[in-house]
């Protein structure tokens, strides 16, 4: 009697699916100019985004608005949570980086694992955070405009819309 082969594990099937999709995305992105792809990479780089809320928190801009401080603290805490969660999942999954993904990293690699993408998770976090914080962003702009900030006074009309 012949023994049935053991079906692949869920982790193996997910890794195979991830590898297949990753290669497909890599293939269809080949026509795009390399500088555009590098700009997209930078847009999710933690070395770029994590210092921003810290630096802005200590500027006069943040001292004039409790809403700005709230947004900056929320961004920073979200980034820390993102780093911890992505790092933990990468440690558990340990999917190696694709061999065809060469020459695109502008910064040094912190780890050798590719799943989940820290860049992608940060971009999704920023988009979701700003979308969910739209009312607070609006209140921050109104508060900065009323505080006499010249930039906001000259570029935001009384209804809160951009001028020009």
Automatic annotation (TrEMBL):
Annotated gene: LOC104598565
Keyword Flavoprotein part of the UniProt annotation: no
Pfam families: PAP2 (PF01569)
Protein's name in the database: Probable lipid phosphate phosphatase beta isoform X5
Organism listed in the record: Nelumbo nucifera
UniProt keywords, alphabetically: Membrane, Transmembrane, Transmembrane helix
Residue spans crossing the bilayer: 70-93
Domain Phosphatidic acid phosphatase type 2/haloperoxidase: 73-140
Keyword field contains Lipid biosynthesis: no
């Amino acid at each position: 009697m012949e023994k049935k082969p053991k079906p692949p594990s869920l982790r193996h099937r997910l890794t195979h699916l991830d590898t297949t999709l990753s290669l497909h995305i890599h293939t269809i992105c080949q026509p795009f100019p390399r500088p555009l792809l590098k700009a997209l990479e930078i847009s999710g780089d933690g070395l770029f985004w994590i210092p921003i809320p810290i630096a802005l928190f200590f500027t006069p801009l943040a001292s004039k608005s409790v809403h700005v401080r709230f947004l900056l603290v929320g961004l920073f805490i979200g980034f820390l949570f993102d780093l911890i969660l992505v790092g933990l999942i990468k440690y558990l999954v340990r999917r190696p980086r694709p061999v065809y993904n060469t020459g695109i990293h502008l910064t040094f690699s912190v780890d050798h694992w590719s799943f989940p993408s820290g860049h992608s998770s940060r971009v999704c976090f920023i988009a979701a955070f700003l979308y969910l914080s739209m009312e607070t962003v609006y209140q921050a702009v109104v508060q900065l405009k009323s505080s006499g900030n010249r930039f906001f006074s000259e570029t935001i009309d009384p209804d809160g819309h951009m001028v020009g």
